[in-house]
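Thread: "does anyone have the structure for this chain?"

Original post by V.I.:
We have the sequence but no experimental structure in hand. Need at least a predicted one for the grant figures.
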Amino acid sequence: MPTAADPAAFITRWSKSGGSERANYTSFLSELCDILAVPRPEPTQADPTKNIYVFERDVFFHNTDGTTSTGRIDLYKRGCFILEAKQGTEQTADELQLSTTPKKLKRGHGVRGTKGWDDAMTRARGQAEQYAKALPVDEGWPPFLIVVDVGHSIELFADFTKSGKVYLPFPDPKSYRLLLDDIAEDDIRDRLRTVWTDPVSLDPTRRSAKVTRELADRLAKLAKSLEGSKFEAGCVAVI
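Reply from O.Q.:
Generated one for you, tokens below.
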């Protein structure tokens, strides 16, 4: 497994980004992989079925008029996630209008913290879900959808049933959105690393079942221990 890069340097480097996700997203996500100590995406092959972990994975939409159109997943890892990247900006509309820069500044997908930006992120989530629906049946639904605002936030949505019926904010509606600074935290990087490497292990039902099994094992051992102690005490009494 690769050695993890420095989270602080990554955060500093990307906190200044904004405006154009097409120019930035592959670099951002590749460096994020370094931070998480997971391999970077592989080169894309001509056969889409062989593109297991790649940028720009082709998917095909079969339209109602009989035609076929092509979509491209920003980052795809089979059995793990579909990732859709966008990029907003920290600048307000007034700052953009008053800017002394001769050429027009890029606003990307909206000013962060505004309704326009929220709407853009919601549309990105819907787009990721449409890509999931377009995957070949034999590849199955990925357990995670990820929506990234490059250099700002990462949003996680999970459906551990792999039915695609309902992707819910993960781990909950209050903490599904991770901000860039959050990547400095060990537990956040661990969570993201697991999404990359073993996403189904994050299923709360599996964790509950594991805890139940462990508790049952401990109780069984305790009962056996008590039974052994009772037997020894009985032997002593007979003697």
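V.I.: this helps a lot. Residues 203-239 form one domain.
O.Q.: and The chain has two domains: 7-200, 203-239.
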